[in-house]
Amino acid sequence: MNDEPRHLRRMTIIWLIISVIADVLFWFLLGPHMAPGRLTSTAKADQFDFNFLAVIALPVMIAIWVFMGYSIRTWSAKRAGVPEPVGGEAARSHKGAIVSWMVITTVIVLFLAGFGTVALISDHGSGGGEGPNPIWSPTGATSAETAALTTSDSWSPSSGKVLVVQVIAQQWKFTYRYPAFGGFETTQLMLPTDTSIAFNVTSLDVIHSFWAYQLGVKADANPMLNNVAFTDTQQPGSFVVRCSELCGLWHGAMFDYGKVVSKTAFMTWATNTETANAANTKDLAPFAWTYVPDANGASGGYYIDGGVTPYSKAELYGAKPSS
Amino acid sequence: MTITADRPIVDAPSSESPPSSGGKTLLSENHGWLSQHVGTALICAILGYVFGHWLGNYIASDYIYIANSGTNAVADTLALGFGAVGWLAGIGALNYPIAKLVGKEAKQQETVNHWTKYIRYSTDHKVVGMQYVVGVLLFLFTGGLLAMAIRTELLNPTTHIFGPGTYIEIVSEHGTIMMMMASSLVVGPLGNYFVPLMIGARRTAFPRIEAFSFWIFMAGYGVIVSALPYGGFPTGWTGYAPLQTQAGAGMISYLLGFAIIGVGMMAAGFNILVTIIHYRAPGMTWSRIPIFVWSILATAALLTLATPVLFAAGTFGVLDRTAQTAFYVTEHGGSSYLWQNLFWFFGHPEVYIMALPGFGIVGELMPVFTRKPLFAYKVSAAGMIGVALLSFFVWQHHLFQSGIDPDMRPLFMLTTELISIPTGFLFLVGMGTLYKAKIRFEIPMLFVMAVFFNFLIGGITGVFLSDVPVDVTVHGGFFVLSHFHYTIMGGLVFAFMAGIYYWMPKMSGKMMNKKLGLAHFWTMFIFFNLTFFPMFILGLLGQPRRVFTYAKNLQTLNDFSSVSAFFLGLSFLIFLFNLLYSMWINPVKAPANPWDSLGLEWQTATPIPPHNFDRIPVILTDPYHYSEVGATPLADFGGPSPVSPVSASSASAPTSASEE
Asked: Which of A62, A238, B359, B593 has its CA 20 to 30 Å from the CA of residue A16?
């Protein structure tokens, strides 16, 4: 029986041809269109990671499919002339095959884990929520966030600073506060081009998830917790914001749109909104990383006792800075 | 092995009753309609429910928080709790412990060979296995109907069939019922039925615990379905707090339902674990037990070790709602992360509770239909144990964007990707077994090949999800939804179907119809892929999970998926019809060993005697000596084998039983 190498060689050739074609087609045809697009550096990096994984995964899948397809075709009992299989020790184990399978899969897996880790760290957490104490952040993020809390934060197109944007989720909408502009709160999400953004995501009631799809940003909005995610905007464009954590009745309808606009357009919008909203901003709770509504607050309170527990408002449960 | 030392091989008594049977049950002197069966269980469940509700109102209706909120969580909880207890008492699960408690002699229930044994508290593992078949199909079809409702709603982004509240109820109920079903889908019916037969045992280690696990599983069905009249629960199957805390009365059905199902899972796991470790026939060494038993062993270990966490998590939730504890209430000192951590600490091993038995069936069936020994048996077993161990170290990949401390993210990315190494062993084993085989594409083998196809897609997309940067986009969307349907449905449910077509001839003595089987397989395989593959694209295009509306440009893909889903639903009706047709309408008697398997379970008489083996067999080798001239016979039955040996393994003189 000397046709053993022939089967494997045939499979390898088929695999090689299909894999190369599939990888090239994927990388050049589908790759540039893969999620989440190329609006920000984060999105670009996430897209690159996806495509990179795909061109490694495709040959692996094709290898197994080619093997299975080849086996089905060649060794089907219905096919005339299929030799009787041979049992015994030789059919039970093949040290070379087992060891090489283990080595190959281990190398791929360890490589991918390393690759993912490098991508995660080099891209400031890849747009994922890092919690209140982010460890992978762009330069200047910490000082901007500290300044935001002391209401001394400022931002201008020439400052080159990180822009702090607070995302407040509640059932079932997102609002945004800009501490660098007097802490006004708005339902519009506007961002300047070519700027590092620090999204500080929190919630007033249940867990939501702030998913700015084209920005490549996703961070859960937890009540009483500040979840920080970073991105670097590049060109202008618009993006969708969707809630991606089930948050009750109107979860499906919890979406809006945001825009990345030129720095000057952003400044015009921000200063105009700051002025227009000044009266409202005065009545808002002071800017803080988290807010807890009182039991009769906008969320209706999430205590199940129907508002019996005595709540004091501002001094205990009102806005307070995180420690 | 010490079993033979203290338990001599005995000839079974000629009567129908098992050797250990001592007398009548405590509460029932006969097996007529006045004795305990599913009807009395139902009556007692209703009585328990009413009593619990009254008790809860009696105790708690003047609590201030209850008087003000208008719903009495204590009454709802006690009603469901006592309902479940009433169900167990009504079926007879409590007879033995109560008898022991009051110092009476506890008696064994007789096994009567009458169809009514299937609606009673039977301690015969074969009866329990059959009961589980009906039980899991009830779960499966309930969840499937809800899935049809989901896909109907998603036909159009703007025209709605259901209100948003109803839709969320349906989604949540679908997810929870399917998860409960999937954790018992193989272990319950096939594990309970075949593990003792495959290891040469007469029964499982704890037959009463085994029966208990089934009947409490069914109590769990009642409790989780009760969420619907209570107004459902809005949290999906993941039940995140504080949405959980905010939700209405239906949430109790979810929390208590998981706690109750959890007790059943622990009981089932514990029983099977001990059975496999201690009830193997002499000579059934660890290197000879069938690969299916290895997979059930790994699963049972997970059931035993991971489910207590679920039980605790569910109980904490119930306490938060009734006793006003604050386990998950952040502003009272609890933490919503506590739920997320507890839930996924259970939830990720749970994923492998649902995957491993599927691997086991695939590994068990491949040698039979390729006429070759299982390739790399030890690697396969090691892979299953490896997966089971690693599954406890990956749970935080569900929390990559949750805002939990990011330090551990690279570690959990690594562990999650590492788990694909032992999972990959399955493919090595499959490919090695196929190589130069002679493949018979009977219905079970078709399902096995489909498992490889589907699970490959499910597994590889899992690597994408484990990569944190990619997960930022795909987490919480249709991509992950499609991923786990590919692994659980494409893997486990397909494997279950393979198992049913393969073993039904043994369980019932009747063959499943092949033409209907082919129709079932092809509709299920094709429309499964057409339903779920578009969902990967939907996820990448930005459709989040559990939404009743979506972007207008996604309608074509959604409609394609929905229409395919209706045909997928049809395939399950074909299966159901095949089951009815082959079992009752036009039964065809099955040959003793229709697939020419070498497995020990096929060496018993059909129908299998209540005690399985007249003599405990002495195992001489593993069951995979296909196409091996002069191979050792599987076992020494101490007499003529009930079934003539398979030609592939020509009988020869037993060699020494020292393979281990």
From this structure: B359
Residue in B472, B478, B634 to test binding to A, most A beta-carbons within 10 Å: B472
- Interface test mutation site (partner A, options B423, B465, B467, max chain A beta carbons within 10 A): B467
- pLDDT tens-digit series, residues A67-99: 999 999 999 998 888 888 988 888 899 999 999
Name the nearest CA neighbour of B610 among B184, B275, B106, B109: B109
Chain A residues in contact with B370 (beta carbon < 8 A):
75, 85
Contacts of B540 in chain A (CB under 8 A): 34-35
Task: Tell which residue, B230, B183, B237, has the closest CA to residue B546.
Answer: B237
ipTM of the complex: 0.90
Residues A114 and A219 in one domain: no
Q: How far apart are CA A73 and CA A68, in angstroms?
A: 9
pLDDT (tens digit, 9 = 90+) per residue, A111-147?
999 999 999 999 999 999 999 999 999 988 888 888 8
Q: What is the DSSP letter of A303?
A: -
Q: What is the pLDDT of residues B414-451, one digit of tens each?
A: 999 999 999 999 999 999 999 999 999 999 999 999 99
Regarding whether A152 and A51 lie in a shared domain, the answer is no
Q: Is A68 on the interface with B (CB under 8 A)?
A: yes
Task: Kindly state whether B160 is in contact with chain A, defined as any CB-CB distance less than 8 angstroms.
Answer: no
Domain that holds residue B64: 23-120
Chain B, residues 518-577, CB within 8 A of chain A, namely 540-542, 544-551
Q: Is the Cβ of A5 closer than 8 Å to some Cβ of chain B?
A: no
Do B65 and B142 sit in the same domain of this protein?
A: no
Q: Which of B481, B525, B572, B569 is nearest to B148 (CA)?
A: B569
Using the Cβ of B238 and the Cβ atoms of chain A, whether some distance falls under 8 Å is answered with yes
In a shared domain, residues B265 and B350: yes
CATH code where residue B487 lies: 1.20.210.10
Among B529, B555, B585, the domain-final residue is B585
With CB atoms and an 8 Å threshold, state whether A251 touches B238.
no
Question: What distance in Å separates residue A318's CA from the closest CA in chain B?
Answer: 12
Identify whether A12 is part of a domain. yes
Residue A201 CB partners (closer than 8 Å, separation 6+): A129, A166, A167, A169, A210, A219, A220, A221, A226, A227, A228, A229, B403
CB B228 within 8 Å of CB B240: no
Residues spanned by the domain of A246 = 141-317
**B112 and B178 fall within a common domain:** no
Residue A239: give its domain's CATH number: 2.60.40.420
A312 and A167 both lie in a single domain: yes
> Which chain B residue has the Cα nearest residue A210?
B401
B595 in any annotated domain = no
Cβ-Cβ contacts under 8 Å, A219 against chain B:
401, 403
Distance CA A71, CA B433 (A): 10
Cβ contact, residue pair B546, A252, below 8 Å:
yes
